[in-house]
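Repro:
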Amino acid sequence: GQQDVEYLNLLANAKGYDRDQMARLVADFVKLEGEHRRNQADDAGTVQFDRLSWADFARLRLAVARALGG
């Protein structure tokens, strides 16, 4: 995960993209919509990301590499 963030930072710096542009780029590849789930009323719960896939992250990495000229 940290390497993905560093890779995205490289792209943002190389192309001059701002946070919103980077967020849209990531959203085009990775489905980050989560659902808050609790087991009981007093449970703080967790956020579940059921639509994430390794293939989506792989496509994102490839797109970033291409945009960086690699």
